[in-house]
Specification:
The complex is a heterotrimer of chains A (283), B (332) and C (273). Chain A has helices at 13-33, 36-60, 72-89, 94-104, 108-112, 117-146, 157-182, 192-205, 217-224, 233-240, 246-278, and strands at residues 66-67, 70-71. Chain A has 283 residues and is mostly helical. Chain A has one domain (14-278). Chain B is α/β, with parallel strands linked by helices and 332 residues long. Chain B folds into two domains: 52-80 and 87-250, Rossmann fold, CATH 3.40.50.300; 254-311, no CATH class. Chain B contains eleven helices and 13 strands. In chain B, helix 5 (133-147) runs antiparallel to helix 6 (162-174). The longest helix of chain B is centred in the middle third of the chain and has 18 residues, at 192-209. Chain C has eleven helices and two strands, in the order ααββααααααααα. Chain C has helices spanning 7-26, 29-53, 65-99, 102-106, 112-118, 126-142, 149-175, 185-197, 210-219, 224-235, 240-271; strands spanning 59-60, 63-64. A two-stranded antiparallel sheet of chain C has the order 1-2. Classes of the chains: A mainly alpha (283), B alpha/beta (332), C mainly alpha (273). The A-C interface holds A 38, 42, 45, 48-49, 51-52, 55-56, 58-60, 62-64, 67-68, 190, 193-194, 196-197, 200-201, 203-204, 209-210, 214-215 and C 31, 34-35, 37-38, 41-42, 45, 48-49, 52-53, 55-61, 182, 188-189, 192, 195-196, 198-199, 202-204, 206, 209, 212.
C-alpha cells in the first residue's frame, strides 16, 4: 500500500477497490488466453457431439414436420443457442474450488487481506468468461454463418436487447448458483459427488439437453418454474420467439432478476453463517 | 570376477536426455519435431559384484545415481551400455521367473492398498505371485512376528504411521521369499525409532534367510547399522568399494557444532576458527571429533550461549570431501 | 519352473481383484450410493429423452421404438462393462506415470497390460450392466422380437467385439500419457467416443456426414460398437460384410493397442531415471 496521497480522489476507497478488482480481472484474462491453443482443440472436440445430436434430430424429423411447435430448423437453432447460453452460465470448478478452499482453510486469506471472496471470484469469472467468449467468437461466428439457414432472424430490435440481458443475467445466476453450492463445504466434508449429481440433473433440467417445450406439458411447466431454465433454455427460447409476447418476456426477465438476487443473497448469507459457525478452519 | 556372485555389474552406464516439455496439447505436438534437450549422465561405468548373503550399502548424495543403478538391477530401466546379471538373469529382460525371485522396495512409494488392511494386500500379493497357501501362511506368520505388527495387520493401511506402513511394505516384499532384496531409501522420512526397527528387522532377515540385500541411503546411520561393505557413488561414479570401517574412520571424524548466542549480537571478543559461518547470533563450526567437548566448554566458559547442537556433517559435504581427498592423494 | 501363467490363473487373479475392490468400495458406502444414484438419474434422462423422441414418430432412421430401446439398453450395458472393469484403471494410469508408481506395477511377475487394465473393479457401475440387460430384454418382449439362438450368439460375439474396441481405444489413449504433459483429456476423449456410439449409425446416412461415418466405421470404429450387435438382435439385420469387419476390427484394435502399449512402456523405461 502506498503512502498517504494528497489527492482526495485517489484516496477514495471505492476507486482503490475498483482498481484492485480490475487488476485481478486483467491477470486472470492473461492466464486464460495462455491456454488458447488447447482451448481451440477442446472446442472442436466439443462440437462433434453437437453434430451427432443434430444428425439424430434430422432422422427424427424425417417423418414429421413439427413436434410440440418446434420444426427441425428450430431444434437445431435451439441447440446452437443453448451452447451460447451455456457459454455464459457455466462455471466449471467454481463450486468445487470454493468447497476445497473451505476444507483446506484457505479462507483465512480473505479474512486477513482486504479482499472479498465473492467479489474476487466474480471478477475472476468475469475475466474468464470474457476471454472465453472473445476467443470463441471467430469459431462460433463461422459456425453460425454456416448454420444461418436454420435461423429466423428476429425483426424486433427489442428482442436483441432482451436476449443480451437474459444472457448476462444467466451468467450471474450461474455464478451465484454455483457459489451457493460451494458454500455447502462449510457443512459437508466431501461434496464432489453431490456436485456431480447436481450438474447431471441440471444438464437436463436447464434445457441444455433438449428444448423443455418438447417434454410432456406438465413436466415442461414444472421445469420452467425452476431457476435452472435461465442457464440454458430461457435465452435460447427468447431468441427463437418461443417465450410468447413481449409481456411474457418482461415477466420472464423480471423473474430471472429475482432469482439472481435470491442466489446472491443465499450465497452471501451462507458464507457469513458458515464463517461464523466454523471460523476459517481447515488444513 | 567371482563365479559365485549373485549380483554382477560390469561397466554399467546410464545417460538420458532431458527434454524440456512444453505445456498443452499443441506444445506436445510441436515438440515432436522441435525439441530442446540436454544430456545427463546418471551412472558412469559402475562395476561391482555381490556375493549371496551380503548386505551391501550404496552411499551417496541425492542424485548421485544410486536409485538409477538399483533400477537397472531390477530391470526397470535399460542401461545405455554395460552388462549386469542378477540371479543369473539379465534384469532388463524381465523374465517372469526373475521377477519372482527378487523384490524392490522404494521408500515413500507404497504398493499396499490404502483403504484396506495390510492383510488383504498380502493376500493379493500371494495371488499375484501364485504362492502356495500353506507356505505363504508360515512365511507371513514369521514376518509378522519378526516385525512385531500382529496388532496392526487388520487395520486399514491409511491409519498406520509412516514407520508402521514401511514395515508392512517390507513384509509384502518378503512374502515370496526373494533371494535378493533391493531397497531404495527405505528409512526416508521415518523417525529414529522406526529407522532402528527397520534396521533390526533387515539384519534379522538377512541372518535367518541368507537373503542378499542391497540398500541405498543418504543416511549414514542406515549404512552403519547394516552394512559391512559400502559402495560410494558420487556423480554417477563409483568412488569406493570396500569395508565401511575405512570410510567411517576417515569421514566420521568431523562434527558440526551450531551455537546460538544469547543476547542481541555476537560477543565482541569471541575467537572463532576461520571456517565458521556466522548468521546473526548463530554460528556454525566444524571441529574434529576429539576437540568437540574442549571447544564447547571453552566457548561456554567465556560467552553466554542459549543453545548448542552437535551434528554429523551432511553426507554431501563428507562424501564430496572424500572424493576430493581421493583424487588428491595418490593411491597406494 | 514354468513361468507362463495359465489362463485360469489370470481369471482367478481377476476374481481376487474384484473381491478386494468390493471390500474397498464398501468402506465408502455413501460414495457408492451416490454413484448408483447418479446412474439412475442418467438412466431417467436417457429414458425421458427416448420417450420424447418417439412422441409422434414411428421410426427414427429405420429403428422403431422397440429396436431403439434395445439399442439404448445395449449402450447402457456396454458402458457399464467398460466403466466397471477399465475406466478407473486407465484414468489412474496417467497418475501412475507422473508419480513414478508405475514402476511398482512393472516389477510384478504378471503381464503389465493385464495388471494395469484389471487392477480395480468398480462395483458401483455393475448395476448398469444389469439394467442395460433388462432394457434389452424388455425391448425384445414388448416388440415381440424373438431372436434365434444363432442370432443371440452372434450378438454376444459382437457385443464382446464392441467391448474390445472400446477397451483398445482407452488403452491407446492411456499409453500416450507417457509422452503428453496434460492428461485430463482422457476422460474427454472417452466421452467423445461414447457420444459417437450412443446413436444408431444410420443417422450418418446424410450426404455431408458420410465422411464422418467412414472415418468412425473404419479408422476409429466407434459407430460399430453398439450399432452392429443391436442390428443383429433387435432388427434381425445380418450383413455378413459388416459383421466380419466388426470382428476383424476388434481383433485388430486389440493387437494395435497392445503394440502401442508395449512400445510406450519400453519408451518409459528408456526415458526414466
Amino acid at each position: 500500500m502506498s503512502a498517504v496521497s494528497a489527492k482526495p480522489f485517489e484516496s477514495s476507497g471505492l476507486v482503490r477497490a475498483l482498481v484492485k478488482y480490475l487488476n485481478i480481472f486483467k491477470a486472470s484474462l492473461i492466464e486464460r488466453l495462455a491456454y488458447r491453443a488447447d482451448f481451440l482443440l477442446g472446442t472442436f472436440l466439443r462440437l462433434l457431439p453437437l453434430l451427432t445430436t443434430i444428425l439424430l434430430w434430422k432422422a427424427v424429423y424425417h417423418s414429421k414436420d413439427e413436434i410440440s411447435g418446434y420444426s427441425f430448423r428450430q431444434v437445431v437453432a435451439y441447440l446452437l443457442l443453448v451452447h451460447v447460453s451455456r457459454m455464459f452460465s457455466s462455471m466449471p470448478g467454481l463450486a468445487s474450488g470454493v468447497a476445497r478452499d473451505i476444507r483446506d482453510g484457505n479462507l483465512k486469506r480473505y479474512l486477513i487481506q482486504p479482499l472479498d471472496l465473492m467479489a474476487y471470484l466474480l471478477a475472476y469469472r468475469m475475466a474468464h468468461k470474457v476471454a472465453y467468449i472473445v476467443t470463441s467468437l471467430p469459431l462460433y461466428s463461422v459456425l453460425f454463418y454456416f448454420m444461418g439457414s436454420f435461423f429466423d432472424i428476429p425483426t424486433d430490435p427489442k428482442i436483441y436487447g432482451a436476449y443480451v440481458l437474459a444472457l448476462f443475467l444467466g451468467f450471474l445466476i450461474g455464478f451465484a448458483f454455483e457459489l451457493s453450492l460451494g458454500m455447502l463445504g462449510f457443512w459437508f466434508l466431501e461434496i464432489s459427488s453431490f456436485l456431480y449429481l447436481v450438474n447431471t440433473v441440471n444438464f437436463f433440467v436447464s434445457g441444455h439437453f433438449l428444448p423443455l417445450d418438447l417434454l410432456d406439458p406438465w413436466v415442461a411447466a414444472t421445469l420452467k418454474m425452476l431457476p435452472m431454465q435461465y442457464m440454458a433454455y430461457f435465452p435460447a427460447a427468447l431468441f427463437l420467439g418461443k417465450i410468447g409476447n413481449w409481456d411474457s418476456i418482461i415477466f420472464g426477465i423480471s423473474v430471472e432478476i429475482c432469482w439472481c438476487v435470491f442466489f446472491f443473497l443465499l450465497a452471501r448469507f451462507s458464507y457469513r453463517l458458515g464463517l461464523r459457525r466454523y471460523g476459517a478452519y481447515g488444513g | 570376477m567371482n563365479e559365485t556372485a549373485i549380483i554382477r555389474a560390469e561397466g554399467l552406464c546410464r545417460t538420458y536426455t532431458v527434454y524440456e516439455k512444453q505445456p498443452g496439447l499443441i506444445g506436445s505436438i510441436r515438440s515432436l519435431w522441435n525439441r530442446k534437450y540436454r544430456t545427463v549422465v546418471a551412472v558412469d561405468n559402475v562395476s561391482f559384484s555381490v556375493e549371496p548373503g551380503e548386505i551391501v550399502g550404496f552411499l551417496g548424495p541425492n542424485g548421485a545415481g544410486k536409485t538409477t543403478t538399483l533400477k537397472m538391477l531390477s530391470g526397470l530401466i535399460y542401461p545405455s551400455s554395460g552388462t549386469a546379471s542378477v540371479l543369473g538373469f539379465t534384469p532388463w529382460e524381465r523374465a517372469d521367473s526373475f521377477r519372482r525371485q527378487f523384490s524392490l522396495v522404494m521408500g515413500q512409494k507404497n504398493q499396499l492398498w490404502w483403504d484396506l488392511p495390510a492383510s488383504d494386500s498380502f493376500d493379493l500379493h500371494r495371488e499375484v505371485y501364485s504362492l502356495p497357501k500353506d507356505r505363504f501362511q508360515t512365511v507371513l506368520g514369521e514376518l509378522i512376528e519378526m516385525f512385531e505388527v500382529s496388532r496392526l495387520v487388520r487395520q486399514p493401511v491409511r491409519e498406520l504411521s509412516l514407520g508402521e506402513r514401511m514395515k508392512m511394505e517390507l513384509i509384502a516384499s518378503l512374502l515370496h521369499e526373494p533371494k535378493v532384496l533391493l531397497l531404495d531409501e527405505p528409512t526416508i522420512g521415518l523417525d529414529v525409532v522406526a529407522q532402528q526397527t527397520i534396521q533390526r528387522c533387515l539384519r534379522e532377515y538377512n541372518r535367518l534367510k541368507q537373503a542378499t540385500i542391497l540398500l541405498t541411503s543418504h543416511y549414514m546411520r542406515d549404512v552403519e547399522a547394516l552394512c559391512k561393505r559400502v559402495l560410494v557413488i558420487t556423480n554417477g561414479k563409483l568412488v569406493h568399494d570396500g569395508p565401511l570401517a575405512t570410510i567411517v574412520q576417515r569421514l566420521g571424524s568431523i562434527k558440526q557444532i551450531r551455537l546460538q548466542f544469547a543476547g542481541e549480537s555476537l560477543p565482541a571478543n569471541i575467537r572463532l576458527p576461520e571456517s565458521s559461518r556466522v548468521q546473526g547470533t548463530v554460528v556454525d563450526l566444524s571441529v574434529s571429533r576429539e576437540l568437540v567437548s574442549e571447544t564447547i566448554s571453552r566457548i561456554l566458559e567465556q560467552h553466554p550461549v542459549s543453545d548448542i547442537t552437535v551434528t554429523d556433517p551432511p553426507l554431501e559435504d563428507v562424501v564430496a570431501r572424500y572424493f576430493q581427498e581421493t583424487s588428491e592423494v595418490p593411491k597406494t | 519352473m514354468s513361468s507362463r501363467r495359465s489362463l485360469s490363473s489370470y481369471f482367478r487373479l481377476l476374481t481376487v481383484f474384484a473381491k478386494y475392490s468390493l471390500a474397498r468400495e464398501m468402506a465408502f458406502r455413501g460414495n457408492f450410493a451416490m454413484k448408483v444414484l447418479l446412474e439412475l438419474v442418467w438412466l431417467a434422462i436417457l429414458l425421458i429423452f427416448f420417450r420424447t423422441l418417439f412422441r409422434g414418430v414411428e421410426t427414427i432412421a429405420g429403428w422403431d421404438q422397440h429396436a431403439f430401446l434395445f439399442f439404448i439398453g445395449c449402450y447402457y450395458a456396454l458402458e457399464g462393462v467398460i466403466e466397471t472393469f477399465f475406466l478407473e484403471n486407465f484414468v489412474e494410469f496417467g497418475d501412475l506415470v507422473r508419480s513414478g508408481n508405475l514402476d511398482l506395477h512393472l516389477l510384478k511377475p504378471i503381464d503389465e497390460q493385464f495388471l494395469l487394465s484389471f487392477r480395480y473393479v468398480d462395483w458401483s457401475t455393475v448395476p448398469k450392466v444389469f439394467i442395460g440387460a433388462g432394457m434389452m430384454s424388455i425391448a425384445l418382449v414388448q416388440g415381440g422380437i424373438v431372436p434365434s439362438p444363432i442370432y443371440l450368439i452372434l450378438f454376444m460375439a459382437l457385443f464382446l467385439a464392441g467391448v474390445s474396441m472400446s477397451y483398445s481405444f482407452l488403452l491407446l489413449l492411456s499409453s500416450t500419457a507417457i509422452w503428453m504433459v496434460r492428461n485430463q483429456s482422457l476422460m474427454e476423449l472417452w466421452w467423445l467416443f461414447t457420444t459417437l456410439m450412443r446413436y444408431p449409425r444410420d443417422i450418418y446416412d446424410v450426404s455431408w456426414a458420410i465422411p464422418i461415418k467412414l472415418i468412425f466405421s473404419f479408422i476409429l470404429p466407434a459407430l460399430l460398437v453398439i450399432s452392429v450387435p443391436s442390428e443383429v438382435a433387435a432388427r434381425q439385420l445380418v450383413n455378413p460384410l459388416w459383421i466380419t469387419w466388426t470382428i476383424i476390427a476388434s481383433v485388430l484394435s486389440l493387437k494395435v493397442s497392445r503394440m502401442v502399449f508395449q512400445w510406450s512402456i519400453r519408451s518409459y523405461r528408456s526415458a526414466s531415471s
